[in-house]
């Protein structure tokens, strides 16, 4: 009996790690990221999302009322209200972390939804509440849905491009964010950091 | 000697109970946010309702972390899922243009694989299956049966919901993705009832009515002439309860095929996907059954331990049932909150 209980305990512990929620992710996004530089600091981040064909196809089908295979201005506006604005509660899957602090991002400008190569795409720009200095603030950027309902991926090569004057002497480095695993600690997100040697 | 064992026995039971609770409950509390589609998804373009905001990441306790190998496994499965997802879309496009049978077969095969991998992640009733079979004595056949029923229920609910909304009601179906909240509420409510039933069974000794003589007789194979399976009906109920919440993956694929005018292929795909889910969930059920069996056999060979068989079985039933009650309750409350039933 003791053995039974020990085995049951271990087993329950193992199962306890795998908890009763829907298996994720359900949606995949390829994100391209542009940092808008002003006065040597990051003032805003704009993103271009390409959705996986299945979820994106479903969204296009739901909003492309006139069935022309495109999302015109009116339809794109409906997409914004019906399938984008809610992301505000999820920080638009954008994390800007300085030290332990994560900036609250609750404003978006220039949202556009479109069909490109028969894929659903979103474009939008997130102004940062204050400009971020890559050197002095030593920020980390993550493009992630912390609930892992959606898997967001940014390119491994050249993960970010710059609009305006690119920072000199800084190198982008992708790191594993071991300190902040998501999805019940099962997924270690990638964070974008900058190595800016002094001088 | 005897008091010592009793103390040990109690300690181990408490560890079992606390482990189940510590593993399941706090994490489940975080689940509602995770189970909700972050996009909101309203095809009429209604303004976004304030949703469940994911818990702040701050103030984490540096507690137990899953091993790196498990993390890699989860990420690999996600990558496979993504590839399957892309491939399903490609085959649907091929079928639309060519109309041949080959893409349909490819879609079915891909759906099967999708179910197999998709169910490897958390969810799909695996916790209920594991708790149920750790707490109740059962045959391997039951493990497969219950898993199959859960998967089939999930598929049928998904097909039914999408079919009802799209074909019968001619209503928008987008909201169904991850937002079938009232179905969730029903599912979790039933799971609470199941857990209560298991606790009650443990208290009155039902479902564990075999006499355990001092000789440690541990043969629990029910012959055809034996009493009716105590758990059969409740097991079917449990499977249906756990399966009521449709698999979001199946709903998305169904909507995708519907959008492409080949809903029937999606229906077949959902059923084949259920087969894949059933296989994966069965593996958990069988592991639980054999873990319990092997341990019981090992303990039964030791007469000093065997005398504790009956109370331990009961306690396992109570602990497992309690865990199921709590998890069901937390999830049901979360669903009720999202429906606005709680203020």
Observed structural traits:
heterodimer, A: alpha+beta, 3-stranded antiparallel beta sheet, 11 strands, 38% strand, globular, B: 343 residues, mainly alpha, 11 helices
Structure description:
The complex is a heterodimer of chains A (199) and B (343). With 199 residues, chain A is α+β, with helices and mostly antiparallel strands. Chain A has one domain. Chain A has helices at residues 2-17, 53-63, 73-83; strands at 27-38, 41-51, 94-98, 101-102, 109-116, 119-132, 140-143, 150-153, 160-163, 171-176, 190-195. In chain A, strands 1, 2, 5, 6, 8 and 9 form a six-stranded mixed β-sheet that branches. In chain A, strands 4-3-7 form a three-stranded antiparallel β-sheet, with no helix packed on it. Chain A has a two-stranded antiparallel sheet with strand order 10-11. Chain B starts with a helix and ends in a 5-residue tail after the last helix. By secondary structure, chain B is mainly alpha-helical. Chain B has eleven helices and no strands. Chain B has helices at residues 2-35, 68-98, 101-118, 126-135, 140-168, 181-204, 232-243, 248-259, 263-300, 303-306, 309-338. Chain B has a domain at 123-219 and 229-338. Mean pLDDT of chain B is 70; it is low at 23-34, 48-62 and 208-230.
List the helices and strands and how they pair.
The complex is a heterodimer of chains A (199) and B (343).
Chain A: H1 2-17, E1 27-38, E2 41-51, H2 53-63, H3 73-83, E3 94-98, E4 101-102, E5 109-116, E6 119-132, E7 140-143, E8 150-153, E9 160-163, E10 171-176, E11 190-195
Parallel strand pairs in A: 1-8, 1-9
Antiparallel strand pairs in A: 1-2, 2-6, 3-4, 3-7, 5-6, 10-11
Chain B: H1 2-35, H2 68-98, H3 101-118, H4 126-135, H5 140-168, H6 181-204, H7 232-243, H8 248-259, H9 263-300, H10 303-306, H11 309-338
Helix pairs in contact in B: 1-11, 2-3, 3-9, 4-9, 4-11, 5-7, 5-8, 5-9, 6-7, 6-11, 8-9
